[in-house]
Amino acid sequence: MPxxxxxxxxALLALLASGCLRRGEVRSDAAxxxxxxxxxxxxxxxxxPVLLDQExxxxxxxxxxxxxxxxxxxxxxxxCNGSCPLxxxxxxxxxxLLGDRxxxxxxxxxxxxDPEHDTPEVMRSYLAxxxxxxxxxxxxGRREDIDAIxxxxxxxxxxxxxxxxxxxxTASVLIGDDRTxxxxxxxxxxxxxxxxxxxLRTAGEHRxxxxxxxxxxxx
Length: 219
What we know:
The protein is an alpha+beta fold. It has one domain (3-15, 53-205): Glutaredoxin (3-Layer(aba) Sandwich). It has helices spanning 3-15, 61-66, 84-98, 120-129, 143-153, 160-163, 192-202; strands spanning 34-39, 42-47, 50-53, 58-60, 70-76, 106-112, 136-140, 172-177, 182-187. Strands 4-3-7-6-5-8-9 form a seven-stranded mixed β-sheet, with helices on both faces. A two-stranded antiparallel sheet has the order 1-2. α4 (120-129) links the parallel β6 and β7 (136-140). The longest helix has 15 residues, at 84-98. Mean pLDDT is 81; it is low at 9-30 and 208-219.
């Protein structure tokens, strides 16, 4: 994993201190675009915009998908040819390793960086082609709403030109337990077993392992 992504992952830990709808219709209601939450022991306003999932359902990001849950969050897009294919393969393995807990106790949220192209239909086809199971939700919506979430969790580049280039996006996975307000981040390209270990540790279920298995970066 290149040093910039590791640096961004480290910086993240410092930064984190209904009516009926037609399918595909974005809900427009009076609920606020932020929601009260506890992150890393501190009260924060978590982004809570209306987004669309791969089934065309309108959801509030925090209220419907994060509140009271253990979640993994990452960013990507269906036409990505950089780190995305390997990252998707790693996350596919993660869902398999989590077994029946995936989708029940632990979920994965992927927000597209290409909302103009990645419609619910495109995202649904992409998930099916990559063995996505129930519990893996792809999300699209207004670009400014997705960027607000990305900025909140710190998956950004301080150089505006690089930050605007989706082909240079951060290849990391945010892991959170909203029940306790505990959050962490790991590179998406490490071994799937290490991602699972980080998920369980964040959820308070970490069991001590031999020191040799706790290395994140193998030689």
